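Appendix B: complex inputs.
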Amino acid sequence: MSILEVHGVTYRYENKYQTVNALNGVDCAFEEGQLYALVGKSGSGKSTLLSLMAGLMLPTEGEILFEGKATASINLNRYRRENAAVIYQSFRLLPLLTVSENVTYPMELRGFKGKQAREKAAELIARVGLPETVLNRFPDMLSGGEQQRVAVARAMSMDTKLLLADEPTGNLDTENSRLIIDLLLKLAHEDGYCVVVVTHDLDIAARADRVFRMRDGKLAPEES
Amino acid sequence: MQAVKNGLKSALRTPGKTLLFVLILTVTAALLTVSCCVFGAVRSYLDDCGNYFHTIAELEYIGDDYPNQVIYDEKLVGALEENRDTISALIGTEPVLSWEPASAELMLSPMLHRRDLFVPDPNAAVLRIKLYAFQEDQGLYTAMVTETFYSRQDFTNRLIMVRGLDGAEPLDFPAVYLAAGQFFRANTPNPTFQIESVSFLDDGSLTQLPPLLPDGASVEDEAPFRRYAETLRIKNDACRVAYTGNIEDLYPFHQQLTALTEGRYFTQAEYDAKARVCIVSEKLAGMLSLAPGDTIPCTVFRADGDLYDAANHRRIDEGDYEIVGIAKHSDSYPFWVFLPDANVGSVIRPVNGYSLGQFRLKNDGVQAFLEAAAPLLAQNFQLNVYDQGFSAATEPMKELLLISGIFLAVCLLLAGCALALQSHLFISRQRESARIMCDLGSGRAHVCHYFLSSALALTLLGAALGALVGMLAEDKVFEILRQFAAQFAEQDLRFSSTKIAVTRTLDFAPASVPARYLTAAGIQAGGSLLFTLFFALGSLRQRKQAKKKPAVRQVRKHAGRVSRLSGFFKYSLLSLRRSKIRTAAVLLLGLTAALFFGRLTFSLAGYREQLDAYKANAVITGSATDYYGRWISGLLVNGHSAAKLGVSELVKDSCATTNLGHIKFLGVVGKEQLPFSWPNEGTFAYETVYYLLNKEPAWAGSSSVSRSPLFYYSQSGSVDWLEGWSEADFIRIDDAVYELYDDRSDSRFSSSYRSGPAVCAVPQNLMEAYGIELGDRINTVVAYYHPYWKELLLPMELQVVASYVAPVGSSTIFSPVTLVRPGQEDEDFFPVLGSKTEKFEVDRRFYSREELAAIQALGLSPAITYSSFTFTLRDSDRLDELRQVLEDSDFTWARSPDRTKSFVKLEDEVYLNTTHSMERQIQYVSVLYDALYLLAGIIGFALAWLLVQSRRREIAVMRAMGTQPGRIVGNFLLEQLLLMAIGLGIGVGVSRLTGAALNKSQLLLTAAFLGVWTLSALICLIVGLRKKSFAALTEPE
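Resulting structure:
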């Protein structure tokens, strides 16, 4: 059963010169335990679709259903807090918080505090393959690959079913890119996450369970 | 050219931003234009004032007979000799433009025989008389005047009565004599001539005329009589002459006491050539039927000493003078002749009267001049400065100049900030374009050209629009300025000593000056282009550096122990602890702001304290004056007015004096007495005695000795009281009411006292001269002025209860003012309050019991017309209230057109100058500080905004993770609030430790700054939490 369904989603925005249809009647569905790749040229609308799925904005037309409920009808803050974790190309870790605190931050938003949260954070850091020593380090003391793994751990700490990644390997070298994709595949296949990755990287697309190709705001026919 | 074209295209294709930039530029240009115009107009007005007004300072000597304008005072001669070098040095000081000594010249014209009231010795005469008969009962001869050598009135061939020299042998008659003497008033049908023994200075030597020269004397014997007659003629018929290098700056013209009614002033050529032209007074011209263009034969004498002593006269010119102008005369200047002389300056000489001359000063050099003149002013010299209203006109405008200067500076600062911001935005929005242009191989010059061309277009448009707006607003702004200046000028100056000199006014009517608009537009355009260039170059440099240097990864220390913080505000607290630089910067900012507010408010509070302290200690005195605001003896001060003011709670130490007459000492009771024979009333002897008594020491009734004018004007001197006596005893009415009655049995007046002796205070010099000691009773004869009756001669016994030393020397004997009315009339002047009546009529006005008790306690009576009145303001803060009370008391101020009232002048010039100066300082500082507070607020607002804005990615990340907006706002707001509050708190603490007392303003300002800071952060957060904030997530680092 699909955890996330996109029905006829159109997203339009206006600038001073024109009205842009970033998405134009997109229909697709995402299931748990799968890693999906959203590929396409720049400006094809893939990041816009990810933002809509992440609850950062609402579609102009159509609807996005999470577990059968339209995101337009639910509290988006809560949705983002409890249901959709996002990993960004530029990691977007909070610079004033340590690795541990970055990971525990989403947990605290959901009421997990203190030792319990810190132990969970340590466990997640270990799962993403980082040593315990990074826990009390600040993000800017880590390499790009390490920071992205911390971002993955933070996303995992949100304990959501949906994990969205926007160009997660865009700022990483090949080795680190491979490590991150391995991690995401593992999360999808072993932990049952529904992972949606926006990428230009054809290698990643090749390793995805399903690939959605975006072109001019529309989905191209599905490929497996 | 391509760059220019592209630059203009970029401006046209972003109309919104271009409009915003043009708006910023227009506003700044308009502000600059208005501030430039205001500043320029006020400065220009001040320059005009400098040319329009002239300032002079009259140097006077305060002698015993000040302000007698005729007397030749030997003390003045001595003082002038002692201070000649000082005055010479003063003439050479920088603020002095010129010096004109007082007139020491007389002009005699054969056409002129003066008949006016100002003839110095009107009754003197030299006559050849033929005696016919002797009236034994009156001791008078009947005589015919056969020749008039000199007399104000020609008595030739007329009968007169002649009285021989006292104690001399009887004269033969019929016989012819040549005699000198005085005509006087007597109860005879013909004019009465008293032969006198005359001595006069003749060619430097004292010549004694024989009492009579019998007929047949030689020409040589008659010569002294002829010379004496000539002396009298010069003395009586001559006019005072003033040589001047600039008649319009001469005191009477400068102060508009007189003005030209016909003809013209002297030309510069006439001044330089000392031409034989003159300007005469209207009265003189009228008497001699002269008009401009007429000539008058004249002899000009210069006196080396007493002007009215023929022996001193040196003939300096003789000839026909052409009248070029006729000046309106005043009562004080009925017969004057003005002659041109450009080289009149540098002479310092003793003259008749007490005015030694006048300085012409630079308008703004008065203070420096007075400081240079301090050694003179410490003695008996005084300087009366007349600026025609320069200070009254310029003081408010100087304030405006300073305020407009501050306004201009603030406008420049704001314009600078706005232009910097505009230029920064202008460059940063096209940063990408610049980068691409560089990537495509455009050189730095080309990129700068691109930026500057579009900036220039915007700047010129903005500057032109701003200048236009400023020009349109100019009239309105000037009108506001006029009202602002009028607000300063509206200060209540009734009775003020500062108001006397205002004789001219110059309207503030600024004209539009295009150069000011161009200047403002130029400043604005130049600033804008410079900032654009600066940011453009900065942008290019950053790009260059970015290419050269790899990014240096910042390494921070390990976070150390695990944070145990949790809860809603965890993020705020961690942020505070970990972003050390930001925390330190905000703390430092808070500390600086609090110290800044503390310092400023402390200094302002200090200024205010100083002002309050000065006001608390300031002494403002007031006194009755003549119409011109000068104190002279023998004023007419209405007793009702003096009484009403005296009992007001506003004044203290009031003192009123009245002229009682003159006193002749006969001796101390119990010691040797001078012989005195009482003449019969109405006889010639009675008049003679009365005449002689008028030369004895003056006798004045006073409500206070130590506050009498002698002391008041010199502000020094001392009084010694007999043991058991004081000022209060001196004026106490109950114990010191005197009854003078007509002792008909002896055909003359005598005196007795209701209780206690009549008392007096005698100057120390007379005490020594007559061998009097405190407590002595002295026998006197007084010549008593009675307001209704004729003058009285009275024998009086007085007890000396005080002696005083007056700084300028005095021969006035003071008695209580209650000794003013004889016998039965006491009740009219000092009603007995014991009766049941509640209303008391005194001199046709009614007073309540309380009012009258208060008036009598001050030793005053409403029924008396006083010859002087002085007082001190009890509380300087109530000065304006006093002005109203003075007016309500029927006093009026000097030079007021209402001449029927008593004139009063308040010595408030120093007080007003000082308080205004301090208030002005406080005002300037307040304006300046307000501008600084505003600037601090703007800086605080901007910094708080930037601090929050710089963390918008954090906010976006937190929002993306689903953090509630309230939590984000709470966290960031708490962080900003806490940081700034701590910083400000430390600042307040430090300022307290460094000795500045906490004050309400500082705390208010600190709180306001905290409020602005927090508000700015809140607004920035609210803006940052909008949906578009997620865009930050996808922006490159």
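The first strand of chain B starts at residue 55 and ends at 61.
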